[in-house]
Design goal:
The protein has helices spanning 24-32, 44-47, 69-81, 100-110, 122-129, 161-167, 180-189, 219-226, 243-246; strands at 9-13, 35-38, 54-57, 86-90, 114-117, 143-147, 170-174, 197-202, 210-215, 232-236. It is α/β, with parallel strands linked by helices and 249 residues long. The two termini are 32 Å apart. S-adenosyl-L-homocysteine is lined by residues 16-17, 41, 90-93, 96-98, 121-122, 126, 174-175, 201-205, 230-233.
Length: 249
């Protein structure tokens, strides 16, 4: 396993929560780290691997700007310059709606050495824990990953929802819970059938995982009635129907 030089920042994907989904590189990084700067999605089981390190929670939650990105970047640079082995630990994969690119660019600008350790993203691995394949040969040959809101917390105006509905056999939405009614409405306006199967997977891969099966037309109502909330991944498409046979947990 690679040696973690002092003064570097390693950007590490923690996966969706089940510590068994950490990579060997991620475990090696956590074991060697002096400080682990993690976001709110990282599970306690994963943090347990960093037993010798200082743990710092710095992250955003649900689009609320609890801390500004430049402050996080500055902290990473400062800890590295103090000679520490810094792990920046993010839920899922750091480059999947995780601001990993912004942080790497800040490290590049500051001349700080870094490494990237990818993780299992909720939109693939999390769905798998609910028995939902992101692709299945008979069902879909394309999948699209989208964020339900942008950095301001609003549903992204820039997205052509009509085109999205036509483009892919499976639509996987991150951070979409607060905008489900609007997103479903736009997809149906764009021609996607109201009875298109929808699955909502909360706390995917964790012991308290919950799965709601619904339809595009019923999604917002059923989400509200079920009490399911963030963090949840939403999948839209016929592949959700395979869950009936493929559910394993
Ligand atoms: N980098 C992360 C995503 C960060 S955005 C990844 O690759 O998975 C945060 C969103 O990810 C949440 O709002 C939710 O939509 C999704 N998410 C992350 N972990 C999750 C989990 N364990 N269960 C369900 N959704 C999760």
């Amino acid at each position: 396993m690679s040696d973690f030089p002092k003064g570097e920042v390693w950007l590490v994907g923690a996966g969706p929560g089940d510590a068994g989904l950490l990579t060997l590189h991620a475990v090696a990084a956590l074991k060697q780290a002096d400080i682990v700067v993690h976001d709110a999605l990282v599970s306690t089981d994963v943090l347990a691997y960093a037993d010798g390190a200082e743990l710092v929670l710095l992250g955003k939650r649900g689009g609320r700007p609890s801390i500004k990105q430049p402050e996080i970047n500055a902290r990473l640079v400062a800890e590295a310059r103090a000679g520490k082995r810094v792990v920046r630990l993010k839920g899922g994969d750091p480059f999947m709606f995780g601001r990993g690119a912004e942080e790497v660019l800040a490290l590049v600008a500051a001349g700080v050495g870094f490494r990237v350790i990818p993780g299992i993203t909720a939109g693939i691995g999390g769905l798998a824990y609910a028995g939902i394949p992101a692709t299945a040969r008979q069902v879909n040959s394309s999948v699209i990953f989208l964020t339900g809101h942008d950095h301001t917390g609003l549903s992204p105006e820039g997205i052509d929802w009509q085109a999205v509905g036509k483009a892919a056999g499976m639509i996987v939405l991150y951070m979409a819970m607060r905008h489900m009614a609007e997103i479903a409405g736009r997809l149906m306006d764009g021609g996607l059938a109201g009875d298109t199967p929808v699955a909502v997977v909360m706390n995917a891969s964790l012991p308290d995982m919950r799965v709601l099966e619904t339809t595009l037309a019923g999604a917002a109502r059923d989400i509200a009635a079920s009490g399911i909330g963030a963090p949840a991944i939403v999948s839209i498409g016929k592949g959700n129907l395979l869950r009936e046979q493929m559910m394993w947990r």
